[in-house]
């Protein structure tokens, strides 16, 4: 895919993210229909409606590219090119009317004979702050068009670090010791409930690092690219569950200190 096609893909992902964001804005204070719920997770009918909006726009512009979304798959998700979509990241916040959630769309390509996908385009949109993060691999990361960089923080004891607690009991149990140790070593911990936003907050220098065990690809694909393009580091280790990862995202200067924590 050449540069001008990547730019077209970025523009299309921005349009789709904004369309989903519009529906989120309209419904923030509404009573939402819950499609299903478990102890630590909620699925809304709006999750699916937002994904459908995104699918329609991506498919119209790129009919041949598969879509791997949190709310369903279109085409072959192992194809050489695929969109990775989270229509609402931070659904629990959204359900409770907390305006801290976003849309995340990435375009991934698997080069011939390679096993791993590379994210080439990333878009994260916060419809409540009207903040749009974008990146094309090899270029700078931008927030509302302005180039962003990670923080310069080298001291863990002055760092603002976000952690996330995923949905399954084993992920929670895995994160709790990290939380317990980290809280005494950093300036402040934040648990904000939208992984993609945490990643782009690190990219923007608002947070110094973000750690979570048990994230899914759609939570991190776009934010990971944006973070790398902003000079940060996006360490991830695949876990046994489908598309699941252990993630440490940071400004790069705290790598050694963060390595001590699981
Ligand atoms: C969740 C959020 C949350 C994180 C979970 C994710 P969802 O995504 O990003 O912050 O802790 O691991 O699954 O379900 O709201 O799209
Ligand atoms: Ca979601």
Task: Provide an overview of this structure.
With 262 residues, the protein is α+β, with helices and mostly antiparallel strands. Helices cover 34% and strands 31% of the residues. The protein is built from seven helices and 15 strands. The protein has helices spanning 3-27, 45-61, 91-95, 169-182, 195-203, 217-229, 255-259, and strands at residues 34-38, 41-44, 66-69, 72-74, 81-89, 102-109, 118-126, 131-136, 142-143, 146-147, 160-165, 188-190, 209-216, 233-238, 244-250. Strand 6 and strand 7 (118-126) form a beta hairpin. The chain starts with a helix and ends with a helix. The model has no long low-confidence stretch (mean pLDDT 96). Bound molecules: D-MYO-inositol-1-phosphate (IPD) and calcium ion.
